[in-house]
Amino acid sequence: MAKTAAERQRKRREKLKMENNRVDYEEHKRRDRERKKLAKLLMLPKEKENLQTRTREAVRQHRMNNSQIRVVDGTVVGGTPYKSMSSLRKAKSRVMKALPKSPRKRASLVKLMACDILGTYIAAPKIRTNQEIEEAVISFYENENISRMMPGKADFITLKDQLGNKYTKQKRHQVATITETYKCFIEDNPSADISKSKFTSLRPRWVLLSSEMSHNVCGCKYHSNVILLLEALHRRYPDLIPLYSKEDFIAHCVCDINDEDCMRNGCERCSDGKLFKEIYENKAPADNEFSWYQWEDTNGFLQKDEIQSAHWKQRQVTIYTIMITYRNKKLSYVIISDFLSHEKTAVAAFTSTILDIITDKFPTVRTVDVWTDGPSSQYKNKYIFALLPRLQDLHAVRIRWNYFATSHGKGPNDGIGGNAKRIVHRLIMSRSAVVPDSQSFANALRSSGTSINVVELTEDDIKEKCKMLDVETLWSGLQTFPGTISTHCAQSVGNGMVQLKFFTTDPSPRHVPAKYTKEAVEVSRKSDENWNCTLCNWKYGDKADPKISEEWIMCASCQSWFHESCGQQNGILDDCDQFLCKKCLQEQ
To answer: Which residue intervals are annotated with compositional bias (Basic and acidic residues) in the record (predicted)?
Structure first.
């Protein structure tokens, strides 16, 4: 029988290995090495990968053949009822064909069969983190103080549950770094035993890092500028200025972070950055200059490829979003309206409607805390302050209206609006709904099966609500409340008085008449000179004043008063919504 090519090569190598042919054998190996080296150079990447796989398998097989105990796939062959390795491999092949194709399912099934046949058990992997701690971490990431919900209809992520059903989650953005978030969690949960790496791995997919924040998410200009400045300082002086940390930075700026005077810039020792200058002023070389980025306001922006006729001829709809929290329960509401004027009358009607819903669903409620941002055209103005006693008497609940700090008003309400718009947009794009007006928008949103509660208010309904509240009489002749711009909490305290606070737990609130008319101003006025605009010298409440409809602001240092527009020309508003005039700034 003729020999195969492999057998002939094997016989040739054996002859070359003999002592008298040793030189020829070494030459044969040298030429073989060069041939293989050249072949590797001409190989494609996939061919090289296959060669490495074959080499590893050959080495493994060689080591197994040279071992004293014959092992196949981790099982000792000796002592088996199979007479040869061939029959054992055939049996293994038949079993492998019957197993699932998925490697994970195959491994799980083999482990289960081994436990049943051998009568053993496989120890479960050690759980390093308590399930309760993991749930607490995930809930902490979704806290409004840790992450901010994105408002856009396209700001969502699609996930699958354990049954393979798809569902969507609105994206959120962290407002701090992972390190700061981890520190905050440990401070709130001192008994939790969890490492930073494990804490990071538990971050939900819909909670994005602060570094991934897109341009359309509103951020605080003041805080962002401080972070940018400190990062630049750290790059220039890494040993002197630590990388930005909220707690460390505040601790170097004030005497005591728990002292109200220090945090409100009223302490003589640390106000206006005195303590920070004392620590760092003489440590950094004065001749070194560096630059950093800074956010600024701009009034102009571009739009790409906007069709003019489509832009101006589209009908619009008002979407007013509300999140009701009651005893750890959360209810999402949207009010859909064809009334497009987003000002005091709409806010009054929407607020009264929501209070009706709250008192109907939760009849035992006695206090309602309202949280909104502070635009002067909608929420933080004399009209809402005057409306509080009327709403409180009408709905028989105590109402406390709280305002977020500047540029910190984004919350779950914005996510509700984005979710509602996305649902209706999908129905429109799939031709499942036609939405020409507010009524069809509300019907389409209801038909989607969403958990968002939909309330529809027409323009006539809003006018009827305002008529019931008698806002026309209530708001006639109102004057601007003193210190409106620095107010962060307002509530009715009875006897026709409204209480205004700089913050919710302010121990020294101001009390002003709810019907703050010119007559009330004359009665409550302290002295005429304190109520003149320092810049234009118009007297507060003067009907001839061309700026009589504007808000008034007071300098936190010299107690002088300005029209809001005059104050913008003659001073600045700091991060705490405290106004400082130009004269006081120069003195500091």
So the answer is: 16-29
